[in-house]
Amino acid sequence: xxxxxxxxxxxxxxxxxxxxxxxxxxxxxxxxxxxxxxxxxxxxxxxxxxxxxxxxxxxxxxxxxxxxxxxxxxxxxxxxxxxxxxxxxxxxxxxxxxxxxxxxxxxxxx
Amino acid sequence: xxxxxxxxxxxxxxxxxxxxxxxxxxxxxxxxxxxxxxxxxxxxxxxxxxxxxxxxxxxxxxxxxxxxxxxxxxxxxxxxxxxxxxxxxxxxxxxxxxxxxxxxxxxxxxxxxxx
Lengths: 110, 115
Description:
heterodimer, A: mainly beta, six-stranded mixed beta sheet, 11 strands, 0% helix, globular, B: mainly beta, seven-stranded mixed beta sheet, four-stranded antiparallel beta sheet
């Protein structure tokens, strides 16, 4: 089976840094994804990790440790528009579909 | 026009009715998916298809069926709708990924309410 855990809710203030953690247990591993979903909208792709280490993309970075079954999404210089749900998803075996965690709702306040 | 189009966007129906949600895409992607989203439960995979002749069950396929009529079309059916199928349904597509990220593109969602 597959299990993906992430915190349900987080809060932060504008300009701060926040780290959203994700742990996973899957049969096979072919990549970990982070998606952003604003309220009432469809999810959109943020990042992809398949090798251990940090991937940086502007204000957002994503880290992966395959041996620990652990990833985090780091958001820097938070803005109000970053208030959204952040979804961690894993492709367990090559040629299978993504399985998503329950998502973390981030609220950014001024 | 949207790359991934879902119809209808909103639907209210009664218990026992047959419902079809349709998805079409202009991205030329081979792979298509149906997910449902419920508050507190995240996105759960219902069915997926990697080409026209390929259909695979996901985490929660009971009570649902699908049809891949063409590369660009993937429909989801509820043969006899029940209230706990009330949810937001997302169709998604992705290219055949020989290597690298299998990135999903989502439609805008279809909100279904079963009374």
